[in-house]
Design brief:
By secondary structure, the protein is of the alpha/beta class. Helix content is about 40%, strand content about 10%. It contains 15 helices and 13 strands. The chain has helices at about 5-15, 20-40, 40-65, 110-120, 135-150, 170-185, 230-235, 240-255, 270-275, 295-305, 320-325, 330-340, 340-350, 365-370, 380-385, and strands at about 75-80, 85, 125, 160-165, 190-195, 205-210, 225, 260-265, 285-290, 310, 355, 410-415, 420. The chain has a seven-stranded parallel beta sheet. Strands 1-2 form a two-stranded antiparallel sheet. The relative contact order is 0.11.
Length: about 425
């Protein structure tokens, strides 16, 4: 009864989408969880168990009551913090220096030019990462674009960054975000994600561009050579690294330096651990997703817990079946039916499964294609047909090489004595 009135007020009076309903239910669920953690009684355990069941029941209703189309995404997606993220953001689009343009004569670099073009073409969200070594170009383009467009402000732009695995750990994560803020030339970042949950033992030493923020890292003349972070030395499973970096992101969000926080390449087991420990959950989990490789179990888990799945390389690194007319009969037929390109069909398929995307494009033609995917949807039968396609990046499901990236489940960690095991 205590929960009935606010629940009705949120999910009946003000709900605008299944996502708002899910977020409201999720918040109620966690409120009860914290209440029970104080009670620590048998009654509390029964109440928590009951509410947990109702949470998944109601969240399932919110997601499924409208069929497949109820999950389909529009131009923006609401994150759990109440922050709206563009459903299509630009991926990293070219070389640049981390602290300057990095060109011999300091003229604008590839990342600057592509980002400026994206903004001029109507794009408002950009994905980037500290380890890409090109954030200066992104930030400079945003700064110059806003100087030209007096009708827009920083709040109209959605900027992302990522904490690399060589900077995992609480203090390192703080330094990584401060470095991104400096390179992007902003006072806050809209979304920061942990780039990887662990690093393979073959990753070290890791060569990365030299940055002003980290002047004392050993180098080979052209690149800084990073070793594993101290948290990984102390705990080779990387679980301590994950928890420390997550705590740092929560702290930075509280300070207003980050608006939303997320992860990348997290598996269900990693997310379930966060649920079991009562941790704040990420707003976004960026993973590989494209026609031919969508982890529906991961997508369902994320949707049930208010986590937005974001597809990196949503066009399979220009896999012909995903971008070329005639390369695949199904995608070609849909492109003809909807008067769209095959790439637009590929992106719409992800959106219709509730997955956002960060495609990269440097030309006006391709950028406009990526942006103009919100005036149509695939019907449920078409989504199912596309889901059956198995275009291959590097092999087949049978040999484990259907993915365009290395499988994050195959990362190998090692103890101090050299014993090897798959990273959690």
């Amino acid at each position: 009864r205590l929960l009935a009135k606010p629940f009705r007020g949120t999910c009946a009076a003000t709900v605008k989408s299944w996502w708002d309903c899910l977020i409201a239910t999720h918040n109620i669920y966690h409120a009860v969880w914290y209440f029970v953690s104080i009670l620590k009684t048998s009654f509390g355990a029964i109440l928590f168990s009951t509410m947990k069941g109702h949470f998944f029941l109601v969240s399932g209703f919110c997601i499924m009551s409208g069929g497949v189309s109820s999950v389909a995404l529009g131009p923006t997606t609401m994150l759990r913090e109440g922050v709206r993220m563009p459903s299509i953001c630009a991926g990293s689009m070219g070389g640049c220096g981390p602290d300057s343009f990095g060109t011999p004569d300091e003229t604008p670099c590839g990342q600057y030019n592509a980002t400026m073009l994206w903004l001029q073409n109507g794009g408002r969200g950009m994905h980037d990462a500290l380890s890409y070594c090109n954030q200066y170009g992104t930030g400079a383009a945003v700064k110059d674009f806003l100087a030209q467009r007096k009708d827009l402000s920083r709040e109209d732009i959605f900027m992302m960054s990522m904490v690399p695995y060589h900077l995992l750990g609480y203090n390192n994560t703080i330094k990584a975000v401060e470095a991104s803020l400096s390179q992007l030339q902003v006072t806050y970042i809209d979304l920061v994600m942990i780039h990887h949950r662990a690093a393979d033992i073959s990753a070290w030493p890791r060569p990365v561009c030299q940055m002003k923020a980290f002047p004392n890292v050993p180098h080979n003349g052209s690149h800084a050579l990073w070793g594993p972070p101290q948290c990984a030395v102390d705990d080779p499973t990387y679980v301590t690294c994950q928890d420390e970096s997550w705590a740092a992101l929560i702290h930075l969000k509280a300070l207003g330096k980050i608006r939303a926080i997320g992860v990348s390449n997290w598996r269900i087991s990693n997310l379930q651990r966060m649920v079991d420990k009562g941790m704040e959950l990420p707003s976004v989990n960026q993973v590989e997703a494209h026609i031919g490789y969508v982890e529906d179990d991961l997508n369902a888990f994320c949707q049930a817990h208010g986590i937005v799945l974001q597809a990196a390389t949503p066009l399979g690194r220009n896999m012909p079946a995903l971008v070329q007319m005639g390369a695949d009969n199904t995608t070609t037929a849909l492109a003809v039916k909807y008067n769209k390109s095959v790439a637009q069909i590929s992106l719409r398929y992800l959106l219709d499964k509730g997955i956002t995307a960060v495609p990269s494009a440097r030309s006006t033609a391709y950028q406009l294609e990526n942006l103009n995917v919100f005036d149509f949807t695939l019907d449920p039968a078409e989504v199912r047909e596309v889901a059956k396609l198995t275009p291959s990046c590097r092999g087949s499901w049978a040999d484990g090489l259907q993915k365009c990236w290395a499988d994050p489940g195959s990362l190998v960690c090692a103890d101090a004595d050299g014993s090897r095991f798959h990273c959690p």
